[in-house]
Amino acid sequence: MKLTFWGAAQQVTGSMYLLELDDDYRILIDCGSDLERSNGHTPPPIDQPTTALFPFEASSLNVVLLTHAHIDHSGNLPNLYREGYEGQILCTEPTFALTDILLKDAASLNQKKINELNGSKKKKVRDKQVQLQKDLFLDRQVRESMESVVAIQFGRKFRLTDTCNVTFLPAGHLLGAAHIVVEVYENGQKKSICFSGDIGRKNYPLLVDPATVPHVDYLVCESTYGNRMHNDDVSPEDALADVIKRTCVDIPGRLIIPSFSVGRTQSLLYTLNRLYSERGFPPIKVFSDSPMAFESTKVYLKNVRQLSKEARDFYDANETLFDFENFEFLESSKASKAVSDYNEPCIIISSSGMVQGGRVEYHVAANIGNPYCTILLIGYCAEGTLGWRLLNGQPTLTIKGEEKQVLANIEKIDVFSGHGDRADLLGFVQMQSPETLKRVFLVHGETSSMEAFKGTLAEAGYPNVEIPAKGQTYEL
User: Fold this and answer.
1) Which of 28, 186, 337, 464 has its CA 20 to 30 A from that of 388?
2) What is the pLDDT of residue 123?
3) Is the pTM of this model over 0.90?
4) Could you give the domains of the chain?
């Protein structure tokens, strides 16, 4: 069999790997959006693409395996069907539900872009319209792809063909996220390969710990945090309690937390619920301002039994995970803007996490000049985003076309990051014996992170580590 790396190769986003068996059965693992392509950072592929959107014929694929719902792993699935794919998508039930939410939201944004292009009278924009529309899937493509999903249970072998089976194992990171182990029988030999997906952290709010992976011959491992450790050495409850006490209790201030709607917001709400119910925190008003977070939270509630034992026990004792005194979901944009008139101490959780698009931009713009406001960044912010600029201490920012002075307090904690750090990644690889593991492929990371982690693995006794280029193929 052979493995080709068509995404997240020497970059973070766009996860997509093609596994071709000797009998010409073709498996695509993940089909994510390349979020770096528009910035010109994507390494050029070794081979020239054969179709408009994919470097292979979509109709030639037999099955797609999806590790988890995040858009950099799932975001090109509708386009795959539009290009001629007719097979199934295998993933866990929670991944199916969360992917459906994320893709429908993306389709809605795509429709708005198309409407704007169609309404433009500028020739330059009109000329760009045809090319852009090739990439912009709509709701009907989302429906087609989601109708083809087959839900797979964790820990149960699923037979793809007479010579190939697949097993999904909990990866942490996000509800439903999986490590995927593929076993192939060729020429009287068994070969096995594990695709890590995104590796979670131990004791992360709500989620189970990443599962133990059995010994395999080949390992495809993400490396997002391959060159760094998480800074926080306290629990999520302690870290959040400290910030809230300083910003909303000791002074009558306002705390704004930019947060991704799927996964991160649910962990925040659960942690706040525990602070209020177990530590006697005053019932400070909490607003969650994201329709997508509202829908995603329903998925978490529907899948309580797939959450951590701690979360299950809390739910059994309190009959809730996310609902507590003075908590309110803001569904309409009118309600969102009305929060500016709320004069008591409060916490506003809104997307996106990088302060780039979404309702959170309005909240930041309305409060950036308020010295009694604190903006708390809780995750990675890509270079150039408003979140990145806030973290780098820019004295003024241009938001919504208006330059504003930064008087609000800017803080950061990374205890809510869903990615495992260097130690977690090393622990994942060390489940495998250096004597029997034939090769490790590093993906889903910046080049500096991959190179550093490759050195870490070499010191730990794993010399056969590759950093594939986009389009590079390996015979396994």
Assistant:
1) 337
2) 54
3) yes
4) 2-228+419-475 (3.60.15.10), 236-412 (3.40.50.10890)
